[in-house]
Design brief:
rod-shaped; 84 residues; 3 helices; mainly alpha
């Protein structure tokens, strides 16, 4: 007598395999969510996200990345300062 080990045959192994895949998939998903949550708040692997939404700061970043040239940077900065 096997004392409650019913010997579910092939179906027992299939169910056990599915449950194991679901368990480890859940563990991996939890780790991914936690890592993305930490990275999302800090802005990546570097320094904490500055959270600066100042229009002049954004404009300066675009100029530094080379998205706009100096003439456009100065014109837009002047327009922002006139508006304020």
């Amino acid at each position: 007598m096997m004392y409650g080990y019913g010997g579910g045959g092939i179906w027992g192994w299939i169910v056990m395999g599915i449950v194991m895949l679901l368990f480890w998939g859940g563990v991996v998903a939890l780790v991914v969510v936690l890592v993305r949550g930490v990275r999302g708040r800090s802005g990546g692997y570097g320094a904490p996200w500055p959270g600066n939404d100042d229009p002049e700061h954004i404009l300066a970043q675009r100029f530094a990345r080379g998205e706009i040239d100096e003439t456009e940077f100065n014109a837009r900065r002047d327009a922002l300062r006139r508006r304020q």
